[in-house]
Amino acid sequence: MVICRCGFQTVIRTSHTDANPGRQFHCCPRQGTRGCGFVAWVIPPICPMCSELLAKLDRTTSMNEDVGRKLFAEKKKTESSIFHKLDEVFHIHNDQVIRCN
Description:
By secondary structure, this protein is mostly helical. Helix content is 52%, strand content 11%. The longest helix is centred in the last third of the chain and has 53 residues, at 48-100.
């Protein structure tokens, strides 16, 4: 049951527009100037196979996000290590340059 902003149970109508031919929608039962103008598309039920595919896609997406987070953390750690080594080399080089003078 869908309730409009007026507090009434909506009615289901069918669109006859070029953009949404045959698509059903909920709307306020008090059409015209008295109605609240509420409109919401009816979402058709998903077939069992599509539902299963969506669940697998969601699990795969979650796994890929976890892998991405781990790779990003490892990249940051590697960058930090590289910058630390470069800093050490730079300081060693500067110390040698100073000693040579």
